[in-house]
Amino acid sequence: MSLMVMLTQIALPVLLLVWLARFPARGVLALGVQALSVAAVLIGLGLAALWTMPPYWVPYIYYGVFSLILVFHLWQGRFQGDGFWRVSAGQTLLVLLGFGLGCLGGYMGYMAYQGRSLPAVETVDIAPPFGPGTYLVAHGGSNVMVNVHLKTLDTAVERFRPWQGQSRALDVFRISPLGIHKNGWLPSDPARYTTFGTPVVAPCDGEIAKVVDGREDMPVPVMDRDHMAGNYVAINCGRFFVLLAHLRRGSVEVSSGDRVAVGDFLGKMGNSGNSSEPHLHVHAQRGLPEQAAFAGEPLALTIDGAFHVRNDRIRVKEPGAR
Question: How many CB atoms within 10 Å of residue 153?
């Protein structure tokens, strides 16, 4: 867990909740601004931040505590009478500072919510590219607030052009049912991450168009920027190509020209290439340029009909399970 994550996803929400609980502003308007500001920050962080550690369920604890605090203040009658704004100059400054944070949180929440909408571009549907288990979407959605890949849509930036095909990609972690995705505090060994070694399977019927293997799995958080995609498999699904990247070195068991069906084993999730920690990168594109495989026309992607965004959980059941 990085210092920034500790500050923004633990320290800031806890401090704001303590502030609202122990130091409520006097006056209906002042307390209302304070409460709405705290709510906006909690919602903005809950929707826009990536919740892996702390796990995805932590924002719901914050929401629950906020609701209890609000009920307590209502029960104490603090939203009734007592004037509109009965706070000192110092307290006013704190309320206004909280309001500024609330505006930022509101913007984050709004943008993250907008990112849940399926973009008005060609969309293709695939089966889950992984076996039974619980998975968390790290990057996914229709704007950069929740999907950093979209930055590569800007063809005015020359270094983005070879990668524009992955502009609407998903990055996915495997997590435990409790949302845990690693063993230890900032472990450098990729094998200590739940994702590492998870089977990757074909998400469509098609033909293997390209395979790259042999790239080293990097220690966390070192990244191989000379081989951005790391080890990957490209599948010709007929109307489009699906590319699955950052695979574990030596795990790929298919070759160019092989025919595959949905669910066939391809390789294992790893930490090769430009990967800050083990995860699976998956995207769909039109075409597979020979000199720059990731430079095709980007397509939006759904999995079993669902458009997934940051912090969505994808649960794949065992065959025959209900």
Answer: 14
